[in-house]
What we know:
Elements: E1 8-14, H1 35-48, E2 55-58, H2 62-71, E3 78-79, H3 102-109, H4 128-143, E4 150-155, H5 157-168, E5 185-190, E6 196-203, H6 217-229
Parallel strand pairs: 1-4, 2-3, 2-4
Antiparallel strand pairs: 1-5, 5-6
Helix pairs in contact: 1-2, 4-5
Amino acid sequence: MWHPPPRRRLWLMRHGAVDYFAGSGADFSSPELSPCGIEQAQAAAQFFASLKIDHLVTSGMPRTRQTASLALPGHPAIEDSRWREIEPGNIARPNRDTFTDPLTLKAVLKTLGPGLTEASTFLGGETFGSAQSRVIEGLTELLFNPAWNHCLVVAHSVTIRMALLHLLQAPLDSLCRLEQDTGCLNLVEIDPAGMPLVRLVNFTPPSPTKDQYLHSSLEELILQFLRAHVR
């Protein structure tokens, strides 16, 4: 009698919401979760309560560590910096014109494509090719690790999109066609031959109907800056 193949389950979770512009300048390396982000991580904890996650990975950045500690309380985590977010350039030192000048605003809104190549940079920082290479390396190593059956990776918007594109064998320029809302969950099943089956994308436990998510990630970033610095 035929039996379907057993599949391991890989959960990819974007960290909860943060306020990158809460201080005097932008902070993309160490901001902690906002109250909304804490609620998102706690909602994930309720979602995971009946699941048996046996392997937990974070990017090592504070917002992923905090999200993981709330989503899976008491679960030991492995930190893998290859999952860290793509690194921005001058946006780490924005001024009033960064998001108010029409040409600059247009460039920021298109920084995830369309038109991406491996040589394209994220807001003048790391190239997409460099980030993609390290994400694929980390993902491949994880998939070859036989020690887990149900794994959760807590990472970032762009790096999770890159992982999904690789699993789907989709081109890099498709990045802008995927969204990863804060606190969202993605589910990929892996069969014994390594074939991925993407079963769930960008599911948000606090708001399954997306009523709380009205903007793209880049639009929300710009709105955060405008609320903090433009009166």
